[in-house]
């Protein structure tokens, strides 16, 4: 009888011990969560001391939890901040690349224009002296209009450059026939004959075509870089939906509430969450690819026949050649004009045109075009190719970071419910007109300036890229703490129970032996 009572007492003590051990384990889990919570930078612990039912939570809902409603709200806010930081850092290289290349090309084209005008002015002053300075406004107007067009002005390049040649011809005709009284009415008649006489030979036609197309390509390409910069800036600002916030919080921080502090989310789980939150960016991936293809194709023009550096640097020589051509044809031109318009009256104090012609006999040459533009083009071409698939590769790039998610072949990871969404249903908060930009790039490739021009050329995609460059994304690691080592306390806690069980076994054996007697 005594032995039976002892056995019952031992069983009761063992049950109490097991209950105490469970409470100690629960307290140890919440203690670990408390430590992790403070290490995240939160000053005070507001969670329960022991695990409790989590039915009061909105996102991190589980059967039991170590988190309070205040802790959950802090986790939600931190999830928003962390995800926005992920995307901002992931797109930083993209934004910086477009911003810096836009500035480099814009500065280069403007400096090239200023350098060309300065070079022409210095050489023409040295070569033609007062004859040039007295008529320098013709050339100044040309460069002013070219700059106005490049910086976004509404200028018809072909008409503007044709007007330059007309004004230059008028000044030249008056200088070469300075002994005559040539008024505006007579000059109007002269203009009607000059189209057939071609006083400058084929130079105006060639120069007009080359300059016009070169400036169309240069301006459109820089506008394209500015467009890409705007897209990168716009898309890097993530406005997280409530669904996105909940899923990011569940993936990064809700496991802490159950004491899971070391296990990372599975990679496919991470990909699903990022694809959900980056639906707007993923939706524009096709448009972005077509835009990059059009930019890469336009680069072929910058490298080839529409190279603005090769066109503009020798422009002074080409204009001088045109002047020499007209000077050589002075007698022929005057004869045909006088025959068609009549011979103008001689001035009382005439100046022999031969003196003027002698001045025009002095020619000059310039250094051949450099390769500065080629270096810029080679650099941006490589960058554009790398960024071609940037948006579609962004989720994969984030989740392959070992601090964000587990390796693909790792099985000990946290999994989540399968997510479903329709990318086409995403609402674009700010409309980005990709088709208009791509259309402008295509037209610039063919050399056309405005949408009124007709082009039958079809654009085909070119270039390749792996999307995001290596090191373009360095996301900060999620707040992971080591799982507390409770093996020692657990073992020491179970020792009394083991002793009592052993004592119970001994008492049972003794009772059985006593009954057999």
Automatic annotation (TrEMBL):
<comment type="function">
    <text>Cell surface proteoglycan.</text>
</comment>
<protein>
    <submittedName>
        <fullName>Glypican-6</fullName>
    </submittedName>
</protein>
<dbReference type="GO" id="GO:0005886">
    <property type="term" value="C:plasma membrane"/>
</dbReference>
<keyword id="KW-0336">GPI-anchor</keyword>
<keyword id="KW-0449">Lipoprotein</keyword>
<dbReference type="InterPro" id="IPR001863">
    <property type="entry name" value="Glypican"/>
</dbReference>
<dbReference type="GO" id="GO:0016477">
    <property type="term" value="P:cell migration"/>
</dbReference>
<keyword id="KW-1003">Cell membrane</keyword>
<keyword id="KW-0325">Glycoprotein</keyword>
<keyword id="KW-0472">Membrane</keyword>
<dbReference type="GO" id="GO:0009986">
    <property type="term" value="C:cell surface"/>
</dbReference>
<feature type="signal peptide">
    <location>
        <begin position="1"/>
        <end position="22"/>
    </location>
</feature>
<keyword id="KW-0654">Proteoglycan</keyword>
<keyword id="KW-0732">Signal</keyword>
<dbReference type="GO" id="GO:0009966">
    <property type="term" value="P:regulation of signal transduction"/>
</dbReference>
<dbReference type="GO" id="GO:0098552">
    <property type="term" value="C:side of membrane"/>
</dbReference>
<dbReference type="GO" id="GO:1905475">
    <property type="term" value="P:regulation of protein localization to membrane"/>
</dbReference>
<comment type="similarity">
    <text>Belongs to the glypican family.</text>
</comment>
<dbReference type="Pfam" id="PF01153">
    <property type="entry name" value="Glypican"/>
</dbReference>
<keyword id="KW-0357">Heparan sulfate</keyword>
<dbReference type="GO" id="GO:0005576">
    <property type="term" value="C:extracellular region"/>
</dbReference>
<dbReference type="GO" id="GO:0045202">
    <property type="term" value="C:synapse"/>
</dbReference>
């Amino acid at each position: 009888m005594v032995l039976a009572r002892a056995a019952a007492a031992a069983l009761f003590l063992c049950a109490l011990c097991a209950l105490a051990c469970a409470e100690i384990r629960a307290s140890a889990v919440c203690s670990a969560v408390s430590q992790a919570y403070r290490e995240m930078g939160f000053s005070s612990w507001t969670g329960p001391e022991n695990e409790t039912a989590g039915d009061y939570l909105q996102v991190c809902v589980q059967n039991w939890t170590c988190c309070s409603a205040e802790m959950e709200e802090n986790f939600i806010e931190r999830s928003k901040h962390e995800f926005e930081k992920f995307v901002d850092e992931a797109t930083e290289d993209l934004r910086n690349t477009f911003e810096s290349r836009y500035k480099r090309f814009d500065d280069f084209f403007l400096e090239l224009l200023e350098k060309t005008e300065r070079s022409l002015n210095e050489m023409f002053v040295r070569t033609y002296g007062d004859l040039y300075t007295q008529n320098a406004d013709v050339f100044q107007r040309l460069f002013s209009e070219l700059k106005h067009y490049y910086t976004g002005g509404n200028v018809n390049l072909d008409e503007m450059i044709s007007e330059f040649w007309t004004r230059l011809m008028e000044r030249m005709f008056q200088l070469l026939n300075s002994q005559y009284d040539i008024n505006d009415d007579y000059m109007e008649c002269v203009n009607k004959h000059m189209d057939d006489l071609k006083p400058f030979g084929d130079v105006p036609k060639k120069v007009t075509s080359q300059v016009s197309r070169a400036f169309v390509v240069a301006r459109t390409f820089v506008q394209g870089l500015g467009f890409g910069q705007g897209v990168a800036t716009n898309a890097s600002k993530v406005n997280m939906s409530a669904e996105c916030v909940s899923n990011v919080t569940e993936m990064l921080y809700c496991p802490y509430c159950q004491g899971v502090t070391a296990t990372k989310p599975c990679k496919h789980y991470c990909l699903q969450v990022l694809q959900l939150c980056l639906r707007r960016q993923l939706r524009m991936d096709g448009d972005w690819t077509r835009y990059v293809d059009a930019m890469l194709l336009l680069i072929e023009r910058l490298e080839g026949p529409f190279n603005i550096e090769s066109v503009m640097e020798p422009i002074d020589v080409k204009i001088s050649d045109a002047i020499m051509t007209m000077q050589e044809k002075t007698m022929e031109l005057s004869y045909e004009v006088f025959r068609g318009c009549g011979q103008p009256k001689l001035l009382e104090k005439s100046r022999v045109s031969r003196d003027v012609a002698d001045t025009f006999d002095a020619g000059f040459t310039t250094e051949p075009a450099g390769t500065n533009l080629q270096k810029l083009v080679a650099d941006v071409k490589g960058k554009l190719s790398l960024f071609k698939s940037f948006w579609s590769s962004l989720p994969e790039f984030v989740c392959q970071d070992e601090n964000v998610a587990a390796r693909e072949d790792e099985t000990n990871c946290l999994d989540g419910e399968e997510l479903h969404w329709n990318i086409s249903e995403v609402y674009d908060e700010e409309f980005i007109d990709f088709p208009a930009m791509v259309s402008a790039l295509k037209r610039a490739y063919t050399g056309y300036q405005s949408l009124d021009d007709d082009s039958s050329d079809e654009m085909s995609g070119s270039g390749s890229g792996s999307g995001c460059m290596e090191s373009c994304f360095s996301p900060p690691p999620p707040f992971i703490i080591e799982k507390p080592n409770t093996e020692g306390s657990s073992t020491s806690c179970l020792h009394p129970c083991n002793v009592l069980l052993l004592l119970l076994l001994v008492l049972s054996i003794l009772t059985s032996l006593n009954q057999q007697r």
